[in-house]
Amino acid sequence: MTVKMGKRLQQIVDMAWRAQEQKHYQHIWDMCCDHGQVGINLLDRSPACHLHFVDQVPSIMTSLQLRLEHHFASSSTHWHTHCQDAGQISFSAAESHLVIIAGVGGVNTLALINQMLSKTPSSNIDFLLCPVHQLWPLRKALNQKGYGLEREQLLQENRRFYELLYVSGTSQKAISNTGCHLWQADKRLSEQYQQRLLAHYHRMQHADDQHIATIIDAYMKVDRHWR
Ligand SMILES: C[S@@+](CC[C@H](N)C(=O)[O-])C[C@H]1O[C@@H](n2cnc3c(N)ncnc32)[C@H](O)[C@@H]1O
């Protein structure tokens, strides 16, 4: 079944597939899946794992369930649908999980991660994240939780910028608050993104706001040396 996807979702699927090829997760979760495009595109490639679709809106999950039954009834991949709050999912502690959360604000993404990790050890759950804004607090918190960087990427779709962040509880590579490699892949794109972030934080800044000043300073100093 071919589902047309924009650049952002395509890059998420590609990074998830590469992660699966390397780590052979037993479970992949398309959290906050909406129409399930990411999960469906992964399902098309028949990964040897359990593939889960999660969204809290009943009408979304009912039509997705029908669509999956129609197209993937005989798939070799075991797929599952869950109509519930992603933060309340129970993960089997003895198995490995790749959790994909995309299209949700960075602060909400972090709240979901906090809920998930309150019940399951971080060594069992890797995350592939593509939040809408608020990357700084998310990256900072992931670092504090002991997560390390696997891969990161900057992308643009419809004039919006997105960071794609793949992190794991077993990687030793520190996650930078500003990002690291994403500034070095595409000179023009990263320059535009830096300007966009700086303009955003300048608008937020009040005279005595040391926290925002720190963020502005860090984004001004990112290493955009094109390698
Ligand atoms: C903008 S869509 C994102 C869809 C897709 N992941 C993407 O990146 O395009 C956000 C979806 O997240 C779902 N959602 C938001 N919070 C959720 C939660 N706590 N648990 C489950 N689903 C949630 C909404 O119902 C909605 O379908």
Q: What percent of the residues sit in helical stretches (DSSP H or I)?
A: 25-40%
Remind me, CATH topology of the largest domain? Rossmann fold
Please identify the structural class as seen in this structure.
Answer: alpha/beta
Give the overall shape: globular
User: What compounds sit in this structure?
Assistant: S-adenosylmethionine
Question: What CATH architecture of the largest domain would you give?
Answer: 3-Layer(aba) Sandwich
Q: Can you tell me the number of structural domains?
A: 2
CATH superfamily of the largest domain: Vaccinia Virus protein VP39
Total strand segments = 7
CATH class of the largest domain: Alpha Beta
Low-confidence stretches: none
Distance between the termini: 38 Å
Strand order of the largest sheet: 3-2-1-4-5-7-6
H/E topology pattern: HEHEHEEHEHEEHH
**Mean pLDDT level:** 94
Rounded radius of gyration (Å): 18 Å
Largest sheet: 7 strands, mixed
SSE map:
Layout: H1 7-23, E1 27-31, H2 37-43, E2 50-55, H3 58-72, E3 78-83, E4 97-105, H4 106-117, E5 125-132, H5 135-144, E6 148-157, E7 160-168, H6 187-204, H7 210-220
Parallel strand pairs: 1-2, 1-4, 2-3, 4-5
Antiparallel strand pairs: 5-7, 6-7
Helix pairs in contact: 1-2, 4-5, 6-7
Bound molecules: S-adenosylmethionine.
S-adenosylmethionine binds near residues 33, 55, 85, 104 and 112.
Structure explained in plain terms:
- This protein is α/β, with parallel strands linked by helices and 227 residues long.
- It folds into 2 domains: 167 residues, Vaccinia Virus protein VP39 (Rossmann fold); 50 residues, no CATH class.
- It has a 7-stranded mixed β-sheet, sandwiched between helices.
- Helix 4 runs parallel beside helix 5.
- It is globular.
- The N and C termini lie far apart (38 Å).
- The model has no long low-confidence stretch (mean pLDDT 94).
- The structure holds S-adenosylmethionine.
- The site of S-adenosylmethionine has 15 residues, from strand 2 and strand 4.
